[in-house]
C-alpha cells in the first residue's frame, strides 16, 4: 500500500476538519471533491473573483448528498483578517490555495497580486495560528526558481524572481519559515509546477496554456505559442497535486514539516511536444478533429525558459509519487473539456 493509500484509509477511519481557501477555483475545488469523498468536514473560503459557483455545483454533483452536508461555504476574501479567522475556527488543517496565480496578471497589476498573495497569506498564517490549526499546507510555485539556470530544479537552490508573482511566492516561503521559528507554527509549502486538469478555466487573457489550447483545438480556432515552442515545462495532472496536499497535511514525520517541496512529474515537455500530444488525444476522442493552424508570437515577459522538477525530496520525506503521466492526464482533462465545452 502506498503512503497515499494509507493516508486516505486513515482519513476515512478518522475524519478531520479542513479549510480549503480558494475552494471554488481549479485546484481548490479538486481538493474539496477529494476530501468530501473521503468523508471529511470541509469549510471553503473564496471571494469568487476567479473561483466559480459552477465549480462548487459540479463537486456537489460528484459526491453523495451526505458528503455534501459536510461542506460549508464562506464567501469572503483572504485580505480580510476577520474572514480568515471565521473560516479557521474549529479547523484541524488548512489547505491554502487562494491567490492570484498568474505571471502576466502580476506584471499588469503588481499591487493587487501583492495584496492577495502576501497580505492574504500572512492573514491566513495568523488566523490559523490563533485558531490552533495543526498545520497549514500552502501553494508555492516553481516560479520561485526565477533565473536559476540549474536543471532539474532542486528545492535548496533558487534564483532571482522574474515577476511580481514569483516574488510573492518567495515571500510566502519566508513568512512560513519565520512563523515556524518565531511561533512554532507548522506549515509545508508545495512548489507546484504546471498543474492542469478538469475545472481549469480556458477563458480570459491569463488562462494557462493547456486549457487554452484544448479549447482552441476543440473549437478549431488558431493556437498561439509564446516564443519558438521549445520552452519546456513540467506539466502535472491535478490528482498528483491532491495527493501531495494530503500527504503534506497528514505526515507524522518531524523532518518533513516546515519544508518546501517540488510537486511535478520530473519530466519536461516542450510546447511543441505538448501541441502534438493534445492533437493526438483529441483525434483519438473526436474522430472529426482537424489540426488547426499553429501561430508563433513573441516570448511573454516574466516567463522562465525551462522548468523541470526534481521530486526526490517529496518522494523521500512525504511518500509522493506521480499517479498519472502527462499523456494520461491529458486524456482525462480532454474528456472533461469535451463535455463542458459543448462538444
Amino acid at each position: 500500500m502506498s503512503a497515499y493509500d494509507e493516508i486516505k484509509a486513515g482519513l476515512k477511519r478518522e475524519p478531520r476538519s479542513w479549510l480549503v481557501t480558494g475552494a471554488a477555483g481549479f485546484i481548490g475545488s479538486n481538493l474539496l471533491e477529494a476530501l468530501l469523498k473521503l468523508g471529511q468536514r470541509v469549510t471553503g473560503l473564496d471571494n469568487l473573483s476567479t473561483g466559480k459557483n459552477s465549480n462548487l455545483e459540479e463537486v456537489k454533483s460528484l459526491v453523495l448528498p451526505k458528503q455534501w452536508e459536510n461542506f460549508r461555504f464562506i464567501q469572503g476574501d483572504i485580505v480580510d483578517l476577520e474572514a480568515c479567522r471565521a473560516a479557521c475556527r474549529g479547523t484541524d488543517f488548512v489547505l491554502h490555495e487562494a491567490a492570484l496565480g498568474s505571471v502576466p496578471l502580476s506584471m499588469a497589476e503588481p499591487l493587487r497580486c501583492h495584496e492577495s498573495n502576501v497580505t492574504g497569506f500572512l492573514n491566513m498564517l495568523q488566523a490559523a495560528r490563533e485558531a490552533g490549526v495543526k498545520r497549514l499546507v500552502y501553494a508555492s510555485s516553481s516560479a520561485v526558481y526565477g533565473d536559476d539556470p540549474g536543471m532539474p530544479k532542486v528545492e535548496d537552490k533558487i534564483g532571482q524572481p522574474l515577476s511580481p508573482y514569483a516574488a510573492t511566492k518567495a515571500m510566502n516561503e519566508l513568512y512560513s519559515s519565520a512563523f515556524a521559528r518565531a511561533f512554532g507554527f507548522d506549515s509545508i509549502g508545495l512548489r507546484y509546477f504546471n498543474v492542469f486538469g478538469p475545472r481549469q478555466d480556458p477563458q480570459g487573457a491569463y488562462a494557462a496554456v493547456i486549457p487554452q489550447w484544448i479549447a482552441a483545438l476543440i473549437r478549431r480556432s488558431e493556437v498561439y505559442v509564446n516564443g519558438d515552442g521549445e520552452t519546456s515545462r513540467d506539466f502535472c495532472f491535478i490528482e498528483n497535486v491532491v495527493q501531495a496536499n494530503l500527504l503534506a497535511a497528514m505526515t507524522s514525520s518531524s523532518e518533513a514539516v516546515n519544508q518546501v517541496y517540488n510537486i511535478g512529474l520530473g519530466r519536461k515537455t516542450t510546447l511543441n511536444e505538448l501541441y502534438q500530444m493534445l492533437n493526438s488525444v483529441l483525434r483519438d476522442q473526436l474522430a472529426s478533429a482537424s489540426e488547426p493552424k499553429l501561430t508563433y508570437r513573441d516570448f511573454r515577459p516574466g516567463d522562465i525558459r525551462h522548468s523541470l522538477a526534481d521530486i526526490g525530496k517529496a518522494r523521500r520525506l512525504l511518500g509522493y509519487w506521480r499517479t498519472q503521466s502527462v499523456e494520461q492526464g491529458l486524456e482525462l482533462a480532454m474528456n472533461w473539456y469535451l463535455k463542458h465545452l459543448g462538444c
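The first helix runs from residue 3 to 13. Residues 3-340 form a domain with the Rossmann fold fold (CATH 3.40.50.720).
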